[in-house]
Fold this protein.
Amino acid sequence: MSLNLVMLGPPGAGKGTQADRLAAARGIPKISTGDMLREAVKAGTEIGLRAKVVMDRGELVSDEVIIGVVRERLDKADARHGFILDGFPRTVAQARALDKLMDGRDPLVVVDIIVPEADLVERLTSRLVCEDCGTNAEGVLRSAIATTRCVRCGGRLKQRSDDNEAVVIERLKVYRRDTQPLVDYYRSRPTFRAVNGAQAMDRVYADLAEAVDSAASGGALGGAVR
Ligand code: AMP
């Protein structure tokens, strides 16, 4: 059975970091729509040029565009035997489209990472990422930005252009309005789980791995915060 995982949770919940680790452990691709859009911005493609304006405001790229991007990505050979989606779906329309894309595949496992909103602004405005590969630089202070390199690729560190306070507040508002309703969309499924994201990273990972395994094997603990 393939693991077809959706990571839900607000910006700053740690989805990307946890998804990276789980993807490496399970040998399946992490598919981050935010990373794909940032790559398109860097490459200067038409989608990238249009997305940049929207991303810098903290708003969402249109459902039509992002669904097209994900459809193409899921068709690639490496995603046929499982994948981890990070940052998609973000609206109910995207979730419906994803359900259609799952025709003939194993059912989605959905894990919601829960973090109190009060922690998120601080996490996002203080985080640093690699300029080249986008990996989060865990535990690196702003004062060490010039002297620390990315642990994955050795690239320089920077603050993401949408991680300043004004844009973060808008992103959290957009999350509450457009993305939080997805929890209700998925909650009744036997493959839905919630994980407490306000713990040490290794603890969150252990809970995530356990939640994924219990959901994938058809456990009946749907919705319990573990
Ligand atoms: P992220 O890296 O997931 O925080 O995404 C960064 C930005 O990319 C978001 O604030 C949106 O502007 C855009 N974005 C990423 N994923 C999606 C999506 N599924 N739907 C619409 N916009 C998205």
